[in-house]
């Protein structure tokens, strides 16, 4: 597989994108692909810079043997567009913000996560104001999406 650098982006960088980061890292390790994939996450908003992930995302990951408690929130920067091959927004609003921020010529690195991963034009909904069930659904959605993403990346040759 061609080495690839992936940045997951959501609004706050405490619920969806850090959980996606932890899940993809774990699935890549299970497939022996850890050295070919570097993964990070960031938010389009700056409210949670330096914060650990939301405790509900930490718990959802922990239930599946994944520790994301050491991750810290950060805001996406212009430098990220050159530093990553793929910048995947969790929802359409994230993608819109990323397109506004991207330096000229690097917009093609941006895509909607589930659209790139599985060809489905579908958002990963923001669970921040929802209950525990939303975080269970979030985990399942991210696991399925990251699994499809890995399959697509394994097929990628250029
Ligand atoms: P996330 O969820 O984008 O999945 O990290 C959110 C977390 C915090 C806020 C919004 C969304 N917030 O407004 O603080």
TrEMBL record:
Gene3D superfamilies: 3.40.50.2300
EC number: 3.1.3.48
Active site per database record: 10, 16, 126
CDD domains: LMWPTP
A Pfam family per the record: LMWPc
Enzyme class, first EC level, given as a word: hydrolase
SUPFAM superfamilies in UniProt: Phosphotyrosine protein phosphatases I
GO molecular function annotations of the record: protein tyrosine phosphatase activity
Phosphotyrosine protein phosphatase I domain mapped to chain residues: 4-152
Superkingdom assignment: Bacteria
Keyword Hydrolase in annotation: yes
Swiss-Prot/TrEMBL keywords: Hydrolase, Protein phosphatase
UniProt keyword annotation of Nucleus present: no
Family: Belongs to the low molecular weight phosphotyrosine protein phosphatase family.
Annotated protein name in UniProt: protein-tyrosine-phosphatase
Species this chain originates from: Ensifer canadensis
Lineage: Bacteria, Pseudomonadati, Pseudomonadota, Alphaproteobacteria, Hyphomicrobiales
